[in-house]
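Sample A.
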Amino acid sequence: MLEFMPYAIQLMWNSKTDTIVYITHQTDHNFDINRVQNALQLFMGTRDFSTFSAKAITDRKIKYTRSLNAFTLEEVKPLMFFDPLSENFRYWHFTCKSRSFLYNQVRRMVGSLIALGLGKITEKDIMVMLQVPSHDNWDTRIQVIPSIGLHLVNVEYDTEELKRMTLDEQEWEPHSEEQKEKLELKE
């Protein structure tokens, strides 16, 4: 049986940090990994990421300022290394760590770095998008990469907050006979 159970859906909004990995591959051997590695630092720290997020479709006020704690890139082996076609590609993991992300933020950041690595844009183009944040400032030479490679790999919580938002086993067990009967019927 479960030892504890989160009782509030708010728990998912109260994470300390989220780690997202974007997995991609490149066939172009002109991909400049060193240039991309150097540009990762452009995104670090607290910034207004308006340019790197999708436009809001509601009237809800959105705060576009986020703090990026880590942004790394590493070359990895393919999942199906035994497939002879995998030799034609280079595989990459872009890893981002932050308290929260905006919609499309990671996909746009990685897309801009891929465009940089392929020589479609320059570091200056990325700096302009970061220093003059606006949805209208997105460089159309950059392709927003598909969501299929986006993976949430880790969520960290403050242990005290997690304890506060958690019920122990005695608290969530059914107390009335009616509750017990309903559970037995479901089983």
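Sample B.
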Amino acid sequence: MPVMSITKPHLGLPALLLLFLRALVLGLLTTAPLLQHANGAMVELPQVLGSAMNVSAAMGKTAKLQCKVNNLNKYKVAWFHMDRQMLLTIDTIVVTRIPRFSVTRDDEITWTLHIQDVSKEDRGEYYCQLNTEPVTNQKVFLNVV
């Protein structure tokens, strides 16, 4: 008995691009990461907008470190100072005992860490972190001049 081979049709780049565009228009693809809940609903995971930043503040003044987060939903934003290995805030609650730190939610997507009376010890890497799995974060480097 002769053996027959079946080959799949080869899709060239234009055909693949057309399929991709159709899927995008039909909503089958999204640029935002998705998470499937136990009830089967698909929701967008939060995303930190932007990339690592450098902020400078004069000694004795107030430093403002910003983080913009899209689609926060039920997740929380926390601020962490890497050099001190210290969690500073969770949501709008300050958890550090250093009274110079405060946090505000300026609008739906903007979280600002305020550091009053900035000192040299405040210099270093700060992370705006989301409690997603895996963790999502954005680095902000504070330079004190």
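B remarks: Confidence is low (pLDDT under 50) at residues 5-11, 19-32. The domain at 46-144 is CATH 2.60.40.10 (Immunoglobulin-like).
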